[in-house]
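re: the backbone from monday

yeah here it is again, tokenized this time
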């Protein structure tokens, strides 16, 4: 099948900021290993899972000093415009060209009134204050964002976000390729024409994945859950079966015209590397 809408394929890898010296070493190894595959950029999460935000900048510098393009994630909920502007200024001076612009999730108790309610507000703000200085990437949800009232309105909100100035989107992870293809078709019907790059979550720690999927609204199909549960504590079988499943998913996405892949590496180069080496480009 042809590449959809003539987009150039892009591949990217996501990290979270490490907290320990051992974590920094692991990140450096992952950079060297995954960097050899020629990704468009390495992205780095921001404030996710309680990560201190200053560490995103440190990780971005680590990525750049290894000679790669970095795409910092930037969340807006609970932030003031002035704070975001300072950060944008800093990123411009650091030579950053790609940003992943997100709403973020702030616990109810910490919520404060903010000019930024949705990621579309952030995208519009970045465009207003920096023009076209950044290539803006946003998130989207083939299996529907967990807080969306319904699939149709989630898609309409995504369209607003794109029209606010997004250049590309990365999806939440999923294990059902049809969810992605149906979503892309629905986007095309609404004249959403930016590249929609599938987000790929390799399977390492299955109980952790189940826990995370419950909160972010990604579905683990029944057949996959039952097969994984049957492996019990047999980590080797979980990783091996997970590699087969995710590799097959990636190959189906690529052969179906996906404009690249974005890997949620969890800073583990091994899983992503093994999948990469089995891809049929
Ligand atoms: P939005 O696009 O604002 O959507 C959030 C919800 O609001 C959706 O239900 C949408 O339908 C609804 N909505 C949007 N606009 C409107 C409107 N005008 N009126 C009513 N409802 C509306 N989190 C982090 O904290 N740090 C990270 O680094 C991070 N990286 C991520 C990277 C990717 C690729 C993805 C997919 C997610 C990431 N997240 C991260 C998680 C993300 O912050 C959450 O999924 C969050 O709940 C939604 O973010 P969003 O940018 O998609 O929000």
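seq for it, each position gets an aa:
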């Amino acid at each position: 099948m042809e590449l959809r809408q003539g987009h150039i394929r892009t591949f990217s890898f996501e990290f979270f900021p490490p907290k320990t010296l051992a974590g920094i070493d692991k990140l450096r190894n992952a950079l060297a290993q995954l960097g050899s595959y020629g990704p468009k950029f390495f992205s780095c999460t921001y404030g996710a899972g309680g990560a201190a935000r200053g560490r995103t900048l440190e990780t971005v510098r680590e990525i750049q000093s290894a000679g790669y393009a970095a795409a910092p994630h930037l969340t807006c909920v609970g932030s003031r415009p002035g704070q975001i502007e300072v950060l944008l200024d800093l990123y411009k001076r650091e030579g950053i060209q790609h940003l992943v612009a997100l709403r973020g999730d702030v616990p109810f108790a910490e919520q404060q009134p903010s000019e930024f309610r949705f990621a579309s507000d952030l995208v519009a703000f970045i465009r207003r204050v920096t023009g076209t200085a950044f290539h803006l990437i946003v998130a989207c949800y083939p299996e529907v964002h967990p807080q969306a009232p319904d699939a149709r309105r989630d898609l309409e909100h995504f369209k607003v976000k794109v029209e606010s100035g997004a250049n590309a989107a990365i999806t939440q992870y999923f294990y059902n390729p049809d969810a992605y293809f149906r979503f892309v078709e629905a986007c095309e019907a609404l004249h959403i024409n930016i590249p929609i790059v599938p987000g790929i979550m390799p399977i390492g720690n299955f109980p952790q994945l189940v826990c995370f999927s419950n909160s972010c609204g990604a579905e683990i199909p029944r057949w996959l859950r039952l097969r994984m549960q049957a492996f019990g504590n047999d980590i080797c079988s979980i990783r091996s079966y997970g590699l087969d499943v995710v590799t097959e998913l990636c190959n189906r996405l690529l052969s179906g015209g996906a404009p690249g892949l974005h890997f949620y590496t969890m800073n583990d180069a091994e899983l992503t590397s093994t999948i990469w080496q089995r891809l049929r480009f």
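DSSP finds ten helices and nine strands in the chain. The radius of gyration is 18 Å.
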